[in-house]
């Protein structure tokens, strides 16, 4: 599965700093027996650990870890093995403790940072919902100032993202749908808290994913960092930029359900849960290994009710918030993929068209600048008038990048880079790129 993470800017937002660090077992919302099993699994994996190491590994306050370790000692599952760093007591498992840890690992293989409860996660996801933030026209245009895109199209995309409703981007291949949909992530404001894991019916559901979530580090002087410090921020959550997940033809319905690894006995959050409080882009819609209506039917309830229903490996059902800006991108006409009833549920259907001459030349010049080439306007216009027009090839945003890239491959091979782009190099690039359309040196058939 291809997952793409895209960086966004950060700012202090309401709700994201409301989670304070628990100082007792009761304040964690977790059962003492569960925490005892969690620390036992960590001791089983690492051998002997002191209180500081157990605190770091579980992201629990020292007072909580001490309370759990005392319980383990009282139960005969752990024993003190001397003192470690700064005089902290070191703990190891007894024979009874090792047997209990193995039994716990068989039930649930997760042995990482202590999870948060499903209720706590639900409250936090609602507190940092996309609906609490928006994107006005000035901000949208500023974010796309370096992108060649029409004002009309931008003023369709802006309200769509501002609304938080699903959007359907469609048009011919190469019109920039994928590129623009990824760039919409620039408009995802602020930052969110993502839990390492969520506890559901005694099972830890791993949520934080470094491939999807970009943790914010090294910003100790930011207002939010100071707020966390003052409030004793709960380190069971990771401060992240709002996620933007991109998946394409590899998407299957199974990826939208809880993933259970039978070898490790660990549950992993599905794609849309990892994208919560952010954006999920379904690219190349219609090329998945399933019928589009199967995918659409999977989204009907979440899109309308703003929550999703998932199932653990043991059949336990549970409900989670669904706060995802859904973006469907396709080369196909919407009515060929979905019936009118479903399309009504998608608030925005936005068509991408070929470029104007001016925009095409602008992108051509940008590509030349990117590669350190002189912009030859005469040569670029020749491409449009003698080749695009003759062979009836629409002006698409991908063409300057691809044709110039191929031409540079040819020039490097010939050892002719000093002279810059030439007609011969571009004719060679055209023939390789549009081989089925004929030779630009001849008349079109």
How does this structure look, described?
Residues 1-14 have a biased composition (Polar residues). Residues 1-22 are annotated as: Disordered. InterPro entries: AAA+_ATPase (IPR003593), P-loop_NTPase (IPR027417). This is ATPase AAA. It comes from Litchfieldella qijiaojingensis. With 445 residues, the chain is of the alpha/beta class. It folds into 3 domains: 31-112, Winged helix-like DNA-binding domain superfamily/Winged helix DNA-binding domain (Arc Repressor Mutant, subunit A); 119-352, Rossmann fold, CATH 3.40.50.300; 357-437, no CATH class. It is 40% helix and 17% strand. The chain is built from 18 helices and 17 strands. It has helices at residues 25-28, 32-46, 51-58, 62-74, 95-107, 118-127, 137-143, 151-163, 177-183, 223-231, 271-274, 292-305, 334-337, 340-343, 357-370, 377-388, 398-414, 423-433; strands spanning 49-50, 78-83, 89-93, 116-117, 167-171, 191-195, 197-200, 203-206, 237-241, 244-247, 259-261, 266-268, 278-282, 307-311, 317-321, 324-330, 348-352. Strands 4-7-8-12-11 form a 5-stranded mixed beta sheet. Helix 2 (32-46) crosses helix 5 and helix 3 crosses helix 4. The chain is elongated. The two termini are 42 Å apart. The relative contact order is 0.12.
- The percentage of residues in β strands lies in 15-25%
The total of beta strands comes to: 17
CATH topology of the largest domain: Rossmann fold
How far apart are the first and last residues' alpha carbons, in Å?
A: 42 Å
Q: How are the strands of the largest sheet arranged? A: 4-7-8-12-11
Share in helix: 40-55%
Q: How would the global form be characterised?
A: elongated
Rg, nearest Å? 27 Å
On the 0 to 100 scale, the average pLDDT is 87
- Low-pLDDT runs: 1-15, 219-230, 441-445
How does the major sheet shape up? 5 strands, mixed
Count of individual domains: 3
| Total of DSSP H or I helical runs spanning 4+ residues | 18
CATH superfamily of the largest domain: P-loop containing nucleotide triphosphate hydrolases
- Helix-strand makeup class: alpha/beta
In the CATH hierarchy, what is the class of the largest domain? Alpha Beta
CATH architecture type of the largest domain: 3-Layer(aba) Sandwich
Domain AAA+ ATPase: 163-352
Organism: Litchfieldella qijiaojingensis
Region (Disordered): 1-22
Biased composition (Polar residues): 1-14
